[in-house]
Amino acid sequence: MTDIDLSDLVASMLRAAGDSLKDKWPESKDYAESEFKKIGETIIFISQEVLAGRMSEEKAKLHLEMQKNSSKMVLLTLEGLGLLAVEAAINAALKVVTDTVNSAIGFTLL
Amino acid sequence: MMKVKSNPIYAAHRLAYCAIIFVLIFSVGCTSIKLIADYDEVIDSSVSEFQRNMETHLIKLERNIGTDDASHENSIEFYDEAKVELSSIRVRAAAIPKNELTLTQIELLIQNLENLEKIHQLGIDENDIPPLRNAFNTGTTAILKLELAKKRGIEVGE
Q: Burial of B125 by CB count in 10 Å (0-12 exposed, 13-18 middle, 19+ buried)?
């Protein structure tokens, strides 16, 4: 049985967790930027139609409500992707602990 | 190791770290944790089917604007079926543990369907179609993107 170096273990856990979080963020950021751009353009379109007298205020309110709901749906997806990234980070860190403990005691305990 | 014997504070910290790590491992069932629901194929296929039906509806409206074919009365069957479809997806989403995010998304999609029907009752014009299409495409894409991400470890294309 070998000694577990605590600082090495913690550093490895942090590295494993950090890598998982870093990998996921660029994809989420691109998705968020692209969706919010489309929603922004649509809101501008609705405003222009109202100002030009081609859309009633009653209809515009309903359209804006729909765009607001769609934005909320995008934000919920981002929240979910964040949770999945945190989950992957925790599991990556736990795997480091499992591997380290099993290797230290010489058999599969965890 | 010498430090541990000569420095009781260091030893206490080391003990506390070890205790935290072992409690963490055993409290989560040793191997892994789940913070969000698993992927559900039925939700995936049902939401994709809803998106196809909605796009077909919008194309038909776009093509028939200004005629009776684009009237709300002629679309009542579509709205009734779409409401039943989404209600069924909602019930399924609610039955899956840790699925609150998807459940809320489905509820927002139901609200958007109700708003579309209100707009239709006021009379559909050409300039209504682009924002309607964007709202439904953005919403269904958001639901599907999260659902596919729940597959975990499987790369999902943009």
A: middle
- Residues of B within 8 A of A88 (CB-CB) are 152
Torsion from C-alpha of B133, B138, B139, B140, nearest 10 degrees = 90
Residue B152 has which token pair?
């975990």
Q: Which helix (H) or strand (E) holds A48?
A: helix A6-51
For every one of its 110 residues, what pLDDT tens digit does chain A have, with 9 covering 90 and above?
567 677 776 777 677 766 766 777 777 888 888 898 899 899 999 999 999 999 999 999 999 999 999 999 999 999 999 999 999 999 998 888 888 888 888 887 77
* Cα dihedral sign, A98-A102-A103-A108: negative
Find out whether A60 and A49 touch, Cβ atoms under 8 Å: yes
- The answer to whether residue B2 scores a pLDDT higher than 70 is no
Neighbours of B155 (CB within 10 A): 7
Give the other-Cβ count within 10 Å of A29's Cβ: 11
Residues contacting residue A77 through CB under 8 Å, at least 6 positions apart: A31, B101, B105, B142, B143, B145, B146
Q: Does B90 touch chain A (CB under 8 A)?
A: no
The one-character DSSP state at B30 is: S
ipTM of the complex: 0.81
Spell out the residues 6+ positions from residue A17 whose beta carbon is closer than 8 angstroms to its own: A89, A90, A92, A93
Q: Work out the pLDDT band at B30, boundaries 50, 70, 90.
A: low
Nearest CB to A77; choose among B34, B118, B146: B146
pTM: 0.81
Which among A62, A74, A83 has the least Cβ separation from residue B119?
A62
> Which residue did the predictor score with more confidence, B21 or B50?
B50
Q: How many CB atoms lie within 10 A of CB B109?
A: 26
